[in-house]
Design brief:
- The chain has about 260 residues and is α/β, with parallel strands linked by helices.
- It is about 40% helix and about 25% strand.
- It contains 11 helices and 10 strands.
- The strands form 2 sheets. Strands 6-7-8-3-9-10 form a 6-stranded mixed beta sheet, with helices on both faces.
- α4 packs parallel to α7.
- The relative contact order is 0.16.
């Protein structure tokens, strides 16, 4: 049946990530089994799935770190499969990634951690020679300007996550990929990170793909959710729509 609602959405909203019929197997283990996903411009989309369900594999395929067995992936109009290395690196400069463990370099100060992606993508900065103002702006946006000369070992877990987000913002990405942004944080700090993610979206007008097991995070941050089950986008909708479903596989995500 022709989906009129989907057609209207396609016309009214710009799609910045488009994944169709994505398949990936490792030996006899099929991880992705025809996964489909669209991320619209300015949207916060949450993808939830159990450990081993294929979330990380999907992300790696999305940014060109892993080749799928088959399927189509487009990011901001660029088909990932046909990009050469230089074109892929240029595209990645517009994609921010907040890693689960923050992934700060222990031997570098906060300033040096934030300057690292700027050195790697000099062409995006143009004629900028003094990077400190950009570093301070990013730190101010996460409320940690005073940490500029500190080492990662001097920071709390929540502060490290904020610094990692500041590093993600330093190149002003159009899309941010969040990998378990609240994992390992206490409830109060997790709430602060969620609020920070929302403020980042408003200020930078980013599109965000959020991988999380945290149901509270999904409830607060998501505008739409996808439940990844058996390698497919098993269920989609808003949090309120999904939480009302009686399908046992969907209910399992929301049981306390």
């Amino acid at each position: 049946m022709h989906d009129i609602k989907e057609e209207v959405m396609t016309k009214d909203q710009e799609v910045v990530i488009d994944i169709r019929d994505l398949y990936k197997s490792f030996g006899e283990n099929r991880v992705l089994n025809g996964f489909n996903m669209k991320l619209n411009k300015g949207e916060n989309l949450v993808v939830m799935g159990k450990s081993g369900s294929g979330k990380s594999v999907m992300i790696k395929c999305l940014v060109g770190l892993m080749q799928p067995d088959s399927g189509y992936i487009s990011v901001m109009g660029n088909e990932i499969r046909i990009l050469d290395r230089d074109s892929l690196d240029t595209l990645r400069a517009d994609i921010g990634f907040l890693f689960q463990g923050s992934a700060l370099y222990d031997s570098m100060t906060v300033r040096e951690n934030l300057e690292f992606p700027m050195r790697r993508h000099k062409e995006k900065l143009g004629q900028v020679t003094d990077t400190l103002p950009l570093v301070m702006e990013a730190l101010e946006n996460v409320g940690l300007a005073h940490t500029v000369d500190l080492m990662p070992e001097e920071l709390s877990g929540g502060m490290k996550r904020r610094i990692a987000l500041a590093r993600t913002l330093i190149l002003k990405p159009k899309i941010i990929l969040y990998d378990e942004p609240t994992s390992g944080l206490d409830p109060i700090t997790a709430k602060e990170i969620i609020e920070l993610m929302r403020s980042v979206q408003l200020k930078y007008q980013t599109s965000a793909l959020i991988i999380t097991h945290d149901v509270d995070c999904a409830r607060v941050i998501s505008e739409r959710m996808i439940l990844l089950v058996d390698g497919i986008n098993y269920a989609e909708g808003t949090y309120d729509e999904l939480v009302k479903m009686t399908d046992p596989k969907v209910e399992a995500f929301f049981k306390k």
